[in-house]
Write a structure and sequence with these properties.
This protein has 11 helices and 14 strands. It is an alpha/beta fold.
């Protein structure tokens, strides 16, 4: 397992009759961002908790930098940083005190702990707010503080479990820039996300997870190529007539190429651009008014819908 930053083999986690993970095989190349893409309930957080030694698997193996998460858990903890959806900071402590506390837990000498704290506070643009209570921080600032604390030990592997959930667009962009910087510095990042744009923007490799299994894996470009070169996007003038439009377009593409429809938009993966003209002809014959029609590049959202039959943001994650 030492050839990979993270590796799992036939990893299973059950809760009674529920299989949160159902045989996950995963290899994450060192120095890359690896995206785990899937809806709530897919098993992403369960996998992260096992890699962070917070849960034991029911079966299979998992290792970080060659260290088994069960038999060598302490070595794993010394080599990872962890940040999740909810910033694990003490609101009564200042930003500086939060980070220094984690540095001391790493058993760094006080002088070194203070020096590294200053470094990460500057890196995450928190110097001006460093001596304020964390309770006064915005959501984005708390998330950055959480990540700063997680990086104080300079871990070679960072586990980010949906780190941008609930953040405003500006804060999301800031965290994306941080992830890019980590990768450029040689850090391996395992990122779980529901956001298709996020996986497309950050990850060199993406695994689509559904019901505890990996249903597809590859680069964002490779995954998008799975469903065709183009996606035909049709917006109806009256969304109520979507069912009629789908009936009219039946047979235009294979069933597995129908990537989804919502809010008056119908998306069909097509290999022949001439399908656009045929779609317009069929809808016009049914007197179904079109607001807009466009050929687009497929998105990871299209991939997920084609693979799982549902959008990526559904259900509540139970584990």
């Amino acid at each position: 397992m030492a050839d990979h930053a993270v590796q799992t083999e036939s990893l299973v986690k059950t809760y009674g009759e529920v299989r949160a993970l159902d045989g996950i095989d995963l290899e994450v190349e060192a120095g890359t961002v690896f995206g785990l893409l899937g809806p709530n309930g897919a098993g992403k957080t369960t996998l992260v908790r096992i890699l962070a030694t917070l849960l034991e698997p029911t079966a299979g193996t998992a290792a970080v930098l060659g260290h088994d998460v069960i038999s060598d858990a302490l070595a794993v903890r010394r080599r990872i940083g962890l940040a999740g959806q909810f910033a694990a900071v003490d609101p009564e402590l200042t930003g500086r005190e939060n980070v220094e506390m984690i540095a001391l837990l790493y058993r760094l000498p006080r002088v070194e702990a203070s020096r590294r704290t200053n470094e990460v506070l500057e890196r995450f643009d928190l110097v001006e707010a460093a001596d304020r209570r964390a309770s006064t921080y915005s959501g984005g600032m708390r998330r950055r503080l959480d990540l700063a604390a997680g990086l104080i030990g300079r871990p070679p592997v960072v586990l980010l479990d949906e780190p941008t959930t609930g953040l405003d667009p500006r804060s999301r962009q800031e965290l994306w820039a941080i992830v890019d910087e980590l990768r450029r510095d040689g850090t391996t990042v395992l990122l779980t996300t529901q956001y298709l744009e996020e996986a497309d923007r950050l990850a060199q490799e993406v695994a689509v997870v559904d019901h505890g299994r990996i249903t597809a894996q590859g680069s964002p470009r490779q995954l998008k190529a799975m469903i065709g070169e183009n996606v035909l996007s049709i917006h109806l003038a009256d969304p109520v007539l979507r069912a009629d439009a789908l009936e009219a377009l039946s047979g235009l593409v294979a069933a597995e190429q129908q990537t989804g429809s919502a809010d008056g938009e119908i998306r069909l993966a097509v290999s022949n651009p001439a399908a656009s003209a045929e779609a317009v002809r069929r809808l016009d014959a049914r007197r179904l008014e079109i607001a807009a029609v466009e050929l687009q590049q497929p998105s990871l959202d299209d991939v997920f819908l084609a693979l799982t039959g549902r959008p990526a943001e559904t259900e509540e994650e139970a584990a």
